[in-house]
From TrEMBL:
<dbReference type="GO" id="GO:0005230">
    <property type="term" value="F:extracellular ligand-gated monoatomic ion channel activity"/>
</dbReference>
<dbReference type="GO" id="GO:0004888">
    <property type="term" value="F:transmembrane signaling receptor activity"/>
</dbReference>
<protein>
    <submittedName>
        <fullName>Uncharacterized protein</fullName>
    </submittedName>
</protein>
<feature type="transmembrane region" description="Helical">
    <location>
        <begin position="381"/>
        <end position="401"/>
    </location>
</feature>
<keyword id="KW-0406">Ion transport</keyword>
<dbReference type="GO" id="GO:0016020">
    <property type="term" value="C:membrane"/>
</dbReference>
<dbReference type="InterPro" id="IPR038050">
    <property type="entry name" value="Neuro_actylchol_rec"/>
</dbReference>
<keyword id="KW-0472">Membrane</keyword>
<feature type="transmembrane region" description="Helical">
    <location>
        <begin position="238"/>
        <end position="256"/>
    </location>
</feature>
<dbReference type="InterPro" id="IPR006201">
    <property type="entry name" value="Neur_channel"/>
</dbReference>
<dbReference type="InterPro" id="IPR006029">
    <property type="entry name" value="Neurotrans-gated_channel_TM"/>
</dbReference>
<feature type="signal peptide">
    <location>
        <begin position="1"/>
        <end position="20"/>
    </location>
</feature>
<keyword id="KW-1133">Transmembrane helix</keyword>
<dbReference type="InterPro" id="IPR036719">
    <property type="entry name" value="Neuro-gated_channel_TM_sf"/>
</dbReference>
<feature type="domain" description="Neurotransmitter-gated ion-channel transmembrane">
    <location>
        <begin position="238"/>
        <end position="352"/>
    </location>
</feature>
<dbReference type="InterPro" id="IPR036734">
    <property type="entry name" value="Neur_chan_lig-bd_sf"/>
</dbReference>
<comment type="similarity">
    <text>Belongs to the ligand-gated ion channel (TC 1.A.9) family.</text>
</comment>
Length: 402
């Protein structure tokens, strides 16, 4: 019985304290907000300017849309300012030092992102503010926003981007609302990894601008978001396959004419390179200002493969010239020098016939062999030039990546 009485006394005491504390909190809230208008900027004697301190944490890079040049981010924004109208003495209210109230109970600065393409700054007016007894207000909220980011694709897929994010008041000038940085860079400690992009750093700087339409200054805080693309996916799925396909074009010079596949192989290479070029083009913004070096590579190899196709057509045409007589000047100026350069043995028939019928047969065989030998020489010279030009072109293009 005594034990039950003891528990009853404890319960009544705790319940009474709870009611007392709740009553005190209601009295404090009523007293603080009795004459307060949240639509009016805080103004106190000697404190005309409201100082807003901002800190930014990047939670996630959700998407980087290169064709539309829009980046989508998940941000954590922390704002802090003083409101001299929201103060109280903690000793008068059971030592309560903080109040947590909905955003619409207090005045909040109209901070916005200048380069945002979103219809609204989600989160700024949807969470709760923490008010300290000395008038300090901390307003922390998450937001998902889309901002314009000019993309330079010259070095794609080894490119680096810089996307500035400008935060500032849309209506208040610097004389009424000043902004300051909590830190000189954004907080990346809670950043989630992105599969395509790295965020090495996000430095911040304060700007004070003065425009011709208004003599008062405007303050903004700019966070420069530096991005570095992870190129491994493109190396394995675009660059390496396209290099292999391009070098497969050399097989067209090695295939015998009798196979009938020399031209079809070169055409297949050109079509494959076109497919890869379209894949790259779908990932990039349409712009005349900056052409990606990877696109230059595809254009270069496409033109080279086109020239190779014409060479193969010429080789086949020469090979099947048959018994047509080769001009003497062509033998001296073209066939013999090319045969020496390419180390091709010219199977020229030099025997003389004893009668007219036999002589005609030997001459026909001799002319056919000459044309076939010339086609082999052109094939080998084309192979050497193709490898040299392709190697030099690849070195020049890929060494320009920075």
């Amino acid at each position: 019985m005594a034990s039950n009485t003891r528990y009853m006394i404890i319960f009544i005491s705790l319940f009474g304290l709870s009611l007392c504390s709740k009553s005190t909190l209601i009295k404090l809230t009523t007293a603080v907000f009795s004459d307060y208008d949240p639509s009016i900027r805080p103004y106190c004697q000697g404190h005309e300017q409201v100082n807003v301190t901002m800190d930014l944490a990047i939670r996630q890079l959700i998407d980087m849309n290169e064709p539309d040049q829009i980046i989508k981010l998940n941000l954590w924004i922390r704002l802090r300012w003083m409101d001299c109208l929201l103060t109280w003495n903690p000793s008068d209210y059971d030592n309560i030092t903080d109040l947590i109230v909905p955003f619409d109970k207090v005045w909040t600065p109209d901070i916005t992102i200048y380069d945002s393409v979103s219809q609204e700054f989600y989160g700024l007016e949807k969470f709760r503010a923490n008010i300290s007894y000395d008038g300090a207000i901390n307003y922390n909220f998450p937001t998902v926003t889309e901002i314009q980011c000019q993309v330079d694709v010259t070095n794609f897929p080894f490119d680096k981007q810089m996307c500035p994010m400008q935060f500032g008041s849309w209506i208040y000038t610097g004389n009424l609302l000043d902004m300051n940085l909590e830190n000189d860079r954004a907080d990346l400690s809670a950043l989630k990894e992105n599969v395509e992009w790295e965020i090495p750093r996000v430095p911040a700087v304060k700007h004070v601008e003065q425009y011709s339409i208004n003599s008062d200054p405007f303050v903004d805080l700019t966070y420069n978001l530096y991005l570095k693309r992870k190129p491994r996916f493109y190396e394995a799925n675009i660059i390496l396959p396209s290099l292999i396909i391009t070098f497969l074009a050399t097989l067209g010079f090695l295939l015998p004419v009798e196979s009938g596949e020399k031209v079809s192989l070169e055409v297949t290479v050109m079509l494959s390179l076109t497919v890869f070029q379209l894949l790259v083009a779908d990932r990039l913004p349409p712009s005349d200002e900056a052409r990606p070096l990877l696109g230059e590579f595809f254009t270069f190899t496409f033109i080279l493969s086109g020239i190779t196709t014409f060479v193969q057509v010429a080789v086949i045409n020469i090979y099947y010239r048959g018994d047509r007589k080769m001009p003497v000047w062509m033998q001296k100026l073209v066939l013999r020098p090319l045969a020496k350069i390419t180390l091709t043995r010219a199977h020229l028939v030099k025997q003389k016939a004893r009668d007219d019928d036999n002589k005609q047969e030997v001459d026909d065989l001799d002319n056919t062999t000459k044309w076939q030998t010339l086609s082999i020489c052109i094939d080998r010279v084309g192979l050497i030039l193709f490898i040299v030009i392709l190697t030099i072109g690849c070195i020049v293009i890929f060494t320009n990546f920075t």
